[in-house]
Amino acid sequence: MLSPDQSHLQTAATMPKHNSLLRTKTSSFFSSCFLYAAGTSASFLLAWAFWSFFSSPAPSANPSFSRGLASEAALSCPAGKAGHNRSYDPPDPTFYDDPELSYTIEKTIKNWDEKRREWLEKHPSFAAGAADRILMVTGSQATPCKNPIGDHLLLRFFKNKVDYCRIHGYDIFYNTVLLQPKMFSFWAKMPAVKAVMLAHPEAEWIWWVDSDAAFTDMDFTLPLDRYKAHNLVVHGWPHLIHKEKSWTGLNAGVFLMRNCQWSMDFMEEWASMGPQAPEYDKWGVIQRTTFKDKTFPESDDQTGLAYLILKEREKWGNKIYMEDEYYFEGYWMEIVGTLESITDAYTGIEKRERRLRRRHAERVGESYGKVWEEHLKDAGYGRGSWRRPFMTHFTGCQPCSGDHNQMYSGQSCWEAMQIALNFADNQVLRRYGFVHRDLLDTSTVLPLPFDYPASDLVGGAS
Ligand SMILES: *[C@@H]1O[C@H](CO)[C@@H](O)[C@H](O)[C@H]1NC(C)=O
Fold first, then answer.
1. How far apart are the CA of 128 and the centre of ligand 1, in A?
2. Which residue stretches, if any, does this entry annotate as coiled coil (predicted)?
3. Residue 78 CA, closest ligand 1 atom number
C-alpha cells in the first residue's frame, strides 16, 4: 500500500514522526474490562490448577482457601472499578436513542457536550472522577503482518500498553478494522477516536497511542493540570511549525484529545483533508506548498494537523498544546542507547533509598512513583536526561510490514524494540518478583531476592 512516492517517507524521515504508512487499519471490540476480566479468570484458573495439582486434599476440603477466594470475588468483581455500576442503564432516552446520531466520521455531531453531560447525570456512578478519566486507544491492521515477527512485536507493544493501563487504572480499546474504508493507515485513527468518544461518554480524555510506541516509564503519568485549558495535546515544537514550517515539527502518532464538541468539530475539519474527502488532492498540494520539507504529494494527517495549528490559530491552534518538556513520545534512535545507563542510575537510587526497595502490591504502585520523583529532581526530562523516557516511539521501523526506513537495518529496529520492551517489562516484573537481567534476553528472568538491589541477584549470566 506504499506508493513509490510514499517511499520517500521511509528514506527521508529524519525525525521522530511519521510513523507509519502501513500502520493502522482497524477492529475488534475488546474493552479493557473484558481483558481485565479475562486476565483475572486466567490467573484464577492457573492458581486453581496449581493448587489442585500440588495439594492432595481437594480445594473444597480446605475451608480457608475457598472462603478466601469467595470473599475476594465478592469484593472486587461485581462492584467493578471504583464502584462503577455496570448493570445500571435507566430507560430514559439519551443520545444513544437518537436514530439520527451516527458513529461514522462523515456525520456531524452537534451539542455533544450537553449530550455527554446528560448521560453522566443519568449515570452518577460514572460521573464521579469523570473530569480526569483517560481511555487509551490503539490498533493495528485487520490482517496478519507481512514481517514474520511483526505480529509478535505488535503483541508485545500491546502488552506494554495493557501493563501501563492496568497500573494506572485506565481502560484501553484496541481497534483492528478501518471504520471508514478509505481512511487507511495513519488516517484510520480519526474514525476510531470519534467512535470511542461516543462509546465512552464517561471518559474525559481519549489517548491515541500508535501501535509502535512503548511506555518506557511505567510510573510517569500525564500532567493533566497543565492541559486544563486545552483540548488536544501533541508532542511538538512550536518554532518548528511556526518558524521553520516543518511537517515534522510535531508527531501525530500519539495524542490526547478531550471528549468534547470542540474535538468533534476539529476532527471533522482535520478529516476533510483525508483520502475519503473530495479535496484530498487539493490538500496534498496545499500541504506541500506550506511545509517545504514534505517530500511526498499525498495529504497526510500529521501535516494536516501542523497546517491547522499554523493557519487556524484562532479557530483551533489556541486549544492545542504542543508538549515539548518531556517524552510525550520520543524518537527511538535518540533513546534506546541510553536505557542501560538509566537502569544503572535507577539501581543506584534503589540501593540508597530503602523505601524504593520495599515490596508492594501492584495496585498501590503510584505511591512509589511519588518517592521516585523525590530522587529525580535533577534528572531532567527530554534529550540528555537520565530520567526514564516516558514513551519510546519506533518511528520509521514499521514492525508489522517490515518496510523500515533504509537509514537503519531491520535488525537494529527489532533489537531496539526488544531492549525498550524489556526495559519496560522489568518495571512491571519487579512487582511480580522477577527481572530480565539482560535487556536483549526476552525469554529469561531471574527471581529478585528480598531487599534487592541491596542484596545481589543470584544466578544467570548477564
Ligand atoms: C446498580 O444499579 C442497580 C439498579 O439501580 C442496583 O439494583 C444495584 O444495586 C446497583 N449495583 C451497585 C453495585 O451499586
1. 16
2. none
3. 13
CATH of the domain at 136: 3.90.550
Residue 450: DSSP 8-state: T
Question: What pLDDT sits at residue 456?
Answer: 81
Confidence of residue 83 (pLDDT cuts 50, 70, 90): confident
3-state secondary structure of 380: coil
| Domain final residue, candidates 273, 303, 323 | 323
The boundaries of the domain holding residue 237 are 7-34+94-323
Instruction: Give, for ligand 1, the residue of 75, 85, 86 to mutate: max count of ligand atoms closer than 8 Å to Cβ.
Output: 85
How high does pLDDT run on average in the chain?
86
Tell me, yes or no, whether 363 and 217 share the same domain. Answer: no
* Tally of structural domains, the chain: 2
At 252-271, the pLDDT tens digits run 999 999 999 999 999 999 99
Whether pLDDT at 61 is above 90: no
Whole-prediction pTM:
0.83
The predicted structure's pLDDT at residue 81: 65
Residue whose C-alpha cell reads 520523583 in the numeric block: 373
- Please state, in angstroms and rounded to a whole number, the distance separating the CA atoms of residues 265 and 238: 23
**What does the alpha-carbon distance between residue 20 and residue 404 come to, in Å, rounded to a whole number?**
9
For ligand 1, the distance from its centroid to the CA atom of residue 85, given in whole angstroms, is 6
Burial class (CB in 10 A: 0-12, 13-18, 19+), 457: middle
Please work out whether the CB of residue 82 comes within 6 Å of at least one atom of ligand 1: no
Q: Are residues 265 and 241 in the same domain?
A: yes
Q: 382 and 317 share a domain?
A: no
Last residue of a domain, one of 292, 307, 323: 323
Q: Residue 55: inside a domain, yes or no? A: no
User: Does some domain include residue 140?
Assistant: yes
Check pocket membership of 43 for ligand 1, CB cut-off 6 A: no
Beta-carbon contacts of residue 130 (< 8 Å; ≥ 6 apart): 120, 202, 203, 204
Domain annotation covers residue 462: no
3-state secondary structure (DSSP) of residue 47: helix
Q: What is the pLDDT of residues 422-441, one digit of tens each?
A: 999 999 999 999 999 999 99
Residues 380 and 344 in one domain: yes
| For range 60-84, the mean pLDDT | 51
